[in-house]
Amino acid sequence: MPDAILRLALPSPLRRLFDYRAPAGLHRADLQPGMRLRVPFGRRELIGILVEVSDHSEVPADKLKPALQLLDAQSPMPAAFFKLCLWTAQYYQHSLGDTFSWALPTLLRQGEPAEARQERFWHLTEGARLDDPRLARAPRQRDALATIAQHPHGVAHQLLSHLQLNKDSLELLREKGLVSIEVRRHAASERHANWLAQPELPLNPEQRAATEAIRAGFDSFNAFLLAGVTGSGKTEVYLQLIRETLEAGKQALVLIPEINLGPQTLARFERRFNARIALLHSAVNDRERLDAWLAARDGEADIIIGTRSALFTPMKNPGLIIIDEEHDASYKQQEGLRYHARDLALVRARQENIPIVLGSATPSLESLQNAHAGRYGLLRLTQRAGGAQQPRFLRLDIKSRPLDSGISGPMQQAIGQTLAAGQQVLVFLNRRGFAPTLLCHDCGWLSECPRCDARMTVHQRSGELRCHHCGHVERQPSNCPQCGKVDLRPVGAGTERAEERLAILFPNYPVLRVDRDSTSRKDAMNQLFDTIQRGEPCILIGTQMLAKGHHFPRVTLVSILDADGGLFSADFRASERMAQLIVQVAGRAGRAEEPGRVIIQTHLADHPLLVQLTEQGYFAFAEQALSERRAAGLPPFCHLALLRAEAHKPGQAEGFLDEACTEAEHLLRELNLSGIELLGPVPAPMERRAGRYRAQLLLQANARAPLHRLLNNWLLALEKIPAGRAVRWSLDVDPIDLF
Ligand code: ADP
Ligand code: ZN
Ligand code: ZN
Hints:
GIY-YIG endonuclease; six-stranded parallel sheet; Rossmann fold; 31% helix
């Protein structure tokens, strides 16, 4: 009988499997797909994933090497996980080995045993009292004790920082015998007696209708788009659906954009449930990630909350998937494996035959179209749950009006009035830094990045010019580098400049800036929000970081300084993004007693999309935008794949893409495929970035099946093009930007 041939996926960009002989003494019956094996690879050793066992290999027998070691007694990944990875690799035309690398926790990739470390839980000790006299002068310990007391089943050590629990305070409490640490595995039966740690809110009629519709589809794959205005109580709907999932003995997976995963969100889930919550996002360390992954796989975690990559968390008893803010661009990975977590979540829900809920105040046009086509149930929440009214929108035409650091006269007046009335103002400008360009008034020199086809942004406070595309930084010159004169002027305005100007215009009020530059310090954001929650009049200025996650109930004026970027852009998705941003920012503001106003500065006050958005709301805008997309044959009415290439020398990337194009034309004929257009190759909209010359070839297809048939054959051919060695190339299936 011939030796068994092991076909492995290895961490390599090559779209193929690698054959090995089984390690000595290993029987075929011991092998299952998904098991990890250590194998020799050139001069290195790699860890591969077993995909299949075969009798034959194309590789001559004397060239086949034996695998060195089997790392698992059983596959560390459930079959459903394995299947999802196969699907992902196939659909995104990515190497399977590399797909496993993105999907698995780092430690598993490195060969760590797939076993959970025992988890530590902090508990209130029996007899501990919240009013213990020893804590009279220790407010932090008192707060910590109160927080622990809210969790009758203990707080997992991993979650301390997310609940803003300080370890030192806990240690002091432990010395006093008020709290203890317990190492244990969660006794499931204990939790399951009563899932609710807090009563549920009675649902309003819209929430109830939505919940009931989703519940009716609970037993199998069903997709729902929960389109609810900001503050309409979508989260409450999620929580009640999760409770039903838990009661059915199943697990729920909740995906959230990175920026929303603050302590507030987690605390809301923690407060509601006596459930074990596994948290997966970019800040958890490798060990925590593996523990959370294993806990979910083994059914020990009841609720899994995480960002994009948490989509790849196996579940023993999957019951429900929720994608919050489904329109958010952070669900699309923009490097390596360019997957879209929302789209994959739908595939996963279908594979596991469970319901999925996509929630958003501003659904993507893709999801809306899926709802129109009957693929998703559309559920609307039109009212704010707390009774707050929707803000009123106003377009402020700034054609031929002078702008003072980006702020027009009427806008300044509106801001002044709001502050004088004791209310707060939110100023939104999606451009950080002081000014987008530095200009020499004498010779016309512009602060161009030496490595990109882009201008460097002026950062006045740090005295730097920074390129936001490649990270290049220079000192801000005092003389023009070209003519030597000193008349250098910042052109345009970013948040830093608007902040400076607002502080001068309104000296009696605090001006708080929120953008990536101001909030890089840890906790800075939370301090800001404390100030805002106190409710005194102030101005809050920031970028899209303001559009997400937080509510600012005391804000009654939202000033949008520039809506035009979204209307002029060459990117066909720009207007959709602009509308989502405006609506999301606007939705952060206002509450019942004080309805909000949103004033939008624009040079295009009559633009039909902007008129629809401000007069009829997001859904009217979306219908208009969808009909424009349909007329232009753009997504979601066609399917795109983008082949990008970049190289050190001009022309190299195009050379490769020319060959790729010829190859594609050849395959289209050979496979007899129609309905696919090849657009390009053309230089990328920003041709040079970080010192490389970039070009792209766009494939536009009116149906998915022929496009993927082409891609299946094309990518293998591309790997063999010699010109491809000098360029860096990648394929983006369903790209969300064309840069
Ligand atoms: P969304 O997720 O749509 O932004 P939330 O679920 O966060 O909305 O709800 C917004 C606010 O309204 C929260 O303070 C929440 O507690 C409250 N809320 C939600 N549903 C109800 C309800 N049925 N009755 C009373 N208040 C509610
Ligand atoms: Zn000059
Ligand atoms: Zn640059």
